[in-house]
Every structure is written in structure tokens, then in C-alpha cells.
Amino acid sequence: MDSVVLRENLKFLNRLDDYIQIQNKGSLYYSIITMIISFISGFLFNINPYIPMLICILFCINNCVLSNFIYEIKHDQPKEIINHNFRFTKNINLILITYSVIYSIIELSQTNTKLFLQYNMENFLRIDSIVIYLSIIISLSRIVRVLCDLWFIKVYKKLGNKVPQLIITLLIIALFLVLLGGIIHKNFVGIIITSIGFLIFLGIRDPLQNYMRTILLDRCKSKYHEQAILYFNIFRKLGNLIISMIITGILLKLELEYALLFLLITAVSSTILVKKVKKLVVD
Predict the structure, then answer these.
(1) pLDDT surpassing 90 at residue 95
(2) DSSP class of 161
(3) 16 Cβ contact list (under 8 Å, min separation 6)
(4) Residue 109 and residue 96: Cα distance in Å, rounded?
(5) HSE of 52 in the Cβ direction (CA atoms, 13 Å)?
């Protein structure tokens, strides 16, 4: 519910237009922290396995203290009976479904591409070398995520309502590169091509979430914001569950390439939803 508290405070300060920019900064800080963790956690674990856990405990205590300083704006309103039931309008449903489908494709593509890279590397590398190369790729993905969070606001100001089209286009390109890399799977060229696709997944995930959350809240009254964010997260998990079940069914009968092909076909089909979202934002 942090996004709701942030939005209400910005509304009180007459800075509502800064919402997506500040929300993106939050994603940026999170990306930087996870990037640093990915670099040092392995070294700390090798020194002592308990060190990462102790650091996590300290951060949790720090967050508990800081959470007491969060102030939620309370509006003075006359006492009246207000209906707080969230309304699933046509536009709200479109936003929730589009977000759940595209975010789930990104998340599942990211997970399955890691396995795809590992399987392809096993054709010509030893296990210890595979671990090193995967660590390098994952570390690079964290850097790409930070850079994309940095650039997102500039891209958003320039493209505006064309952002979803850019994201879905990059997603399709990423999945195509992953599959192409799988075809050339017995050398480093295929690994590099697949890795580029994997890096794109990390780069577009936060911008998609920040943009879709913003347009959702823009189309809901303030009293519905908490419920809107709740359903925003529920639809994401529901979409992930449904597509995961389909992928599991595919993997029971076919190779991993077919699961990735299914995700590519679903991403291409999602362009229809994206066009409707663009029209919604323009209107």
C-alpha cells in the first residue's frame, strides 16, 4: 500500500504529477540495492553463511523503525455512509488484465530463460564454468535493471502513452532472441544472444509495473485506491498462476523451447490489449 500513501501525500502537496517519477525512483533504489546484494552476497556467504542472514535481520529492524515515521494524510470529511466497494469497470478490467498477462510473461520468461541458458551451457562447459557465467549474466541483468529505471522517466516524458507499445515490442524481441540463441546453442554466440534477451526482461519489468499502476490509480477515486492496488497484485498473481499451469503442462510433454514459444505467441497476441490500453489513455 506504499504507492497509495505516496499518492495521497503528493496530492496533499499538489505534486500529483510527480507520482510516476517518485515511484520510479523507488524502483531505482530497490534495483541498486539488489544489484549490490547480488555482487557481495556470495562473498559474504563464503566467509560465513550467517553473515547475509544477520545483515537481513538488521535491515528488517531498521525498516520497522523507519515505518513508524511514515505519515498518511487524513482528509477532514463529513461523516456520511460511503460505499467503498471497488467497481470493475470495462477500463479497469482492461488495465488489470493487460498488466497481469504482460507482467506474467516477463516474469516467467525470465525464470525459464535462466534454465534455458543453463541447459545450453551444459553442451560445451563444465559445471564450475556454468556457475561463473550465470553469475556474470545475473549481475549484468541487475545493472541493466538499474539503468532502465534511470532512463524510464526520460522515455516516459518523450513517448507518453506509447510506453506500453515499446515494452511489448521489446518483450517480443527478447523472446525471439532467446529462441534464436537456443537454435545456436553449442557455442558462445548462442549464449550471448540468449543473454541479451534475458537482460531485456529485467529492463522492462519495473517500467511496466510503474506505468500500469499509475494509469490504474488515475482512473480510480481516492477512496478506492487501496482496493485497486490489492486487485492489481491479485491479478498479477492470478495471471502468473494460469500461465504457469499452461507452461507446466507443456513441459510435461515437450521441451523447454516450446514453453518459450508459447510465451512468444502470447506476447504477440497481447499487442491487441496494449493497443486498447493506448486508446484508453489517449481518450
Answers:
(1) yes
(2) G
(3) 7, 10
(4) 20
(5) 14
Cβ atoms of 210 and 23 closer than 8 Å: yes
Q: Do residues 168 and 102 lie in contact, with contact meaning Cβ atoms separated by under 8 Å? A: yes
What is the DSSP track for 199-267? Answer: HHHHHHHHHHHHHHHHHHHHTS-GGGHHHHHHHHHHHHHHHHHHHHHHHHHHHHHS-HHHHHHHHHHHH
Asked whether 96 and 235 are in contact (CB, 8 A), the reply is yes
Q: Can you tell me the mean pLDDT for 131-145? A: 83
Cα–Cα nearest to 3, from 243, 238, 209: 209
Q: What is the pLDDT of residues 108-118, one digit of tens each?
A: 999 899 888 88
How much is the mean pLDDT over the chain?
84
| 255 or 25, greater pLDDT | 255
Q: Residue 68: in which H helix or E strand, if any?
A: none
* CA proximity to 109, closest of 173, 155, 165, 163: 173
B/e letters for 192-208, b = 16+ CB within 10 Å, e = fewer, are: ebbbbbbbbbbbbbbbb
Query: By three-state DSSP, how is residue 14 classified?
Result: coil
How far apart (Å, rounded) are the C-alpha atoms in residues 76 and 34? Answer: 40
Decide: 280 and 94 in contact? Cβ < 8 Å: yes
What are the tens digits of pLDDT across the range 73-94? 665 554 444 445 677 888 899 9
- Report how far apart, in Å, the C-alpha atoms of 182 and of each of 189, 203, 247, 253 are: 10, 21, 18, 19
142, 173, 178, 184, 222 from 199: Cα distances, Å:
8, 11, 10, 18, 36
